Amino acid sequence: QQQQQQQRQQQQRQQQQKHTKQDTRRGRETALLRTPNISTQKKFQDEASDIDYAAIEARPHNMLIQTLFRSKMAQAVGRDVQSKGYQAIIDLTRQLNQFSPHETQARTLQILKSLFPFWLLPAFKVLFSKPMPEFACKMNAWATALTCEWLMGPCKVNDVEVDGGKLGVSQGVQVQRCRYLEEAGCTSICVNSCKVPTQAFFAQEMGLPLTMTPNYEDYSCQFSFGKTPPPQAEDPAFAAPCFSQCPSKREGKGSAFAQLQAMAADTSSGALSAGVNGVAASSDRCHKVRPSI
Predict the structure, then answer these.
(1) Torsion sign (Cα): 212, 217, 219, 220
(2) CB 102 within 8 A of CB 290
(3) Counting C-beta atoms within 10 Å of the first and last residue's C-beta, which end of the chain has fewer, N or C?
(4) Is the separation of the CB atoms in 96 and 73 below 8 Å?
(5) What is the rounded distance in angstroms from the CA atom of residue 95 to the CA atom of residue 267?
(6) Which residues fall in a compositionally biased region of kind Low complexity (predicted)?
(7) Cα distances (Å, whole numbers) of residue 138 to 124, 128, 146, 244
(8) DSSP letters of 87-131?
């Protein structure tokens, strides 16, 4: 009996130690969740400073793609810029963003289409997207990760949720810290010069749904090939306020909403008016974010 009592006491001590460890772990997890955003931002800034963008841009295929991309951007804007390298891409992007949101989206979509031979996109839809959509999504995920690192920074292929709640194995691309978003410093550029036209490009030209989910706190972005984007009224990217350093915001006159009203007065577009009404509650939101093409 004494031996059994000792065994019970030992089991109780083990249970207490187990609960103590669990409580400690939960406390650490809670502390991490409550870490101020400034600490998170510093962490990602430190990580970004370790990225050798010069080495990435120096790779032959990246140099070729960047040169082609710049050429097509200059054609879309109507003129080139004096700056060189990646800064030229950002300067051209800011000039592109001076057009109306609808025009910016349309011109960006045309840029993406012009990067490919005229026959390739229709052929891809027929040969891959329609008969083998999952395989087509995987192909595009890998192609994006391999060819867009110079533009967005380090990224990797990952598994994501796709339409129907299924798991899309290797159908996603996780961008660690989007260089394009960070350098541009504007949610309007992210939405109108990247997210909306890119999603439209894959859906319309390649026959594949794509959802891009930018994170404006850490500058990461998740590409999910095979997932249909939510309605824009439910998409957080369209409700996000712009950054304090946003060039579009500084260049505007008056409040963001006042600029929206002025732009709405210059057009009879119902979609544009809907966009104005959609941001009426937030004057801090970037004044150039609009519904899609």
Answers:
(1) negative
(2) yes
(3) N
(4) yes
(5) 21
(6) 1-17
(7) 13, 11, 12, 37
(8) HHHHHHHHHHTTS-HHHHHHHHHHHHHHTS-TTHHHHHIIIIITT
E strands in 182-220: 210-214
Question: What is the rounded distance in angstroms from the CA atom of residue 95 to the CA atom of residue 89?
Answer: 10
Q: pLDDT of 51-96, one tens digit each? A: 999 999 999 999 999 999 999 999 999 999 999 999 999 999 999 9
Nearest to 239 by CA among 174, 284, 271, 270: 284
Q: Are 92 and 72 in contact (CB under 8 A)?
A: no
Q: Which residues pair with 212 in a beta bridge?
A: 223
3-state SS record for 129-164: HCCCHHHHHHHHHHHHHHHCHHHHCCEEEEEEECHH
Helix (H) or strand (E) segment spanning residue 290: none
What angle (nearest 5°) sits at the alpha carbon of residue 213, between those of residues 64 and 267?
85
How does pLDDT run across 99-157, given as a tens digit for each residue? Answer: 999 999 999 999 999 999 999 999 999 999 999 999 999 999 999 999 999 999 999 99
CB-based contact 252:239 (threshold 8 Å): no
Residue 184 contacts residue 90 (beta carbons within 8 Å): yes
Residue bearing tokens 């260049």: 251
